[in-house]
Amino acid sequence: MDITLIKTFIEVANTGSFVAACDRLFVTQSAVSLRIQRLEDSLGHALFTRSKAGAILTPAGVQFERYALSLLRLWQEARQQIAIPDGYTRAITIGAQYSLWPRLGFRWIDEMQTRMPELSVHAELGMTDRMTRFLVEGVVQAALMYTPQLRPGLLAEPALDDELILVASYPDAPIDLGRDYVSVDWGPEFTHALALNLPHLTDSGRSMALGALAADYIVNRKAAAYMPARTAKRYMDQKKLHLVADAPRFPYPSWVVWREDIEEDISAVAKAALAKVVQAAEVEQEYIVADLELVEHYEPGLFPIITNE
Q1: Domain membership flag for residue 64
Q2: Which 8-state DSSP code applies to residue 210?
Q3: Torsion-angle region of residue 16: left (phi > 0), alpha (psi -120 to 50) or beta?
Q4: Under a CB-based contact definition with an 8 Å cutoff, are residues 171 and 242 in contact?
């Protein structure tokens, strides 16, 4: 069985579209159609009902989906076991979004290998869609992300709460920032909360999907944006960013998503290691917020944290 056909089937099943699948697989639509046709010919059954609205699994496709996921998981496990370097007997692959690596991901690796020295760790990087796909396919066994996407066989748990604060590259910036404001995609919950609390900032002429890189853009221009407190703090210490007075803060939680079939002993080590790293990060977070309040003469409790309830 060609594993490429299995991956293509899973992408079409997940997206419900041959077009969307070709975008994720970086191949042409004709290549996706040919792969599915080859798979259907091999199985002797149609796997999708095709229409202008997309592609829906047939009863045979629904039955095959669980086998496809198992085949892909076994393939990934075989690859990982073969690739274990000398001196190690176990292996795990974890993933995370870019901005979660420095504070959580790297420390997580250190703590896991401290607890289980024979564990080889491989790291992957990507946004939520990519990490979710890797989890489903078995490429990674756990991943840190901000907006988890639940799929069968995956379990999401809270990791670390951060706060989004409004900062500008110049002091005494007004809350009515006008064209100085840069919209950063921190997810639908933030977008909704911003529209309720600061609707005048929702029509920004500049927007970015890469939140982890937005700070580098802001500090080099007359601009402002919402940034995670832990990211903004180091720029504020250097007087490159300044807190915008009267601006509300918004919660920004991160999550860890696990494959449910991760080996039990590795799962226990990984979860205990992450819990310790998160606990230390929470203590740091408290100091960061307190320091921000002192540096900018921000009175605690003056501006309440906004929730999405």
Answers
A1: yes
A2: -
A3: left
A4: yes
Q: Does one domain contain both 169 and 199?
A: yes
Whether the CA torsion 161, 166, 172, 176 is positive or negative: it is negative
> Per the structure block, which two tokens stand in for 48?
């999708």
152 plus 17 within the same structural domain = no
Distance CA 36, CA 6 (A): 9
Q: What is the pLDDT of residues 3-48, one digit of tens each?
A: 889 889 988 998 899 998 888 888 898 999 999 999 999 999 999 9
Confidence of residue 224 (pLDDT cuts 50, 70, 90): very high
How close are the terminal C-alpha atoms of the chain, in Å?
Answer: 49
Cα-Cα-Cα-Cα dihedral sign, residues 136, 138, 143, 145: negative
Query: What pLDDT digit, counting tens, does each position of 61-100 carry?
Result: 999 988 888 888 778 777 776 777 788 999 999 999 988 8
- The three-point CA angle 49-153-101 to 5° equals 115
Which tokens is 161 given?
A: 């709460």
pTM of the complete model beyond 0.70:
no
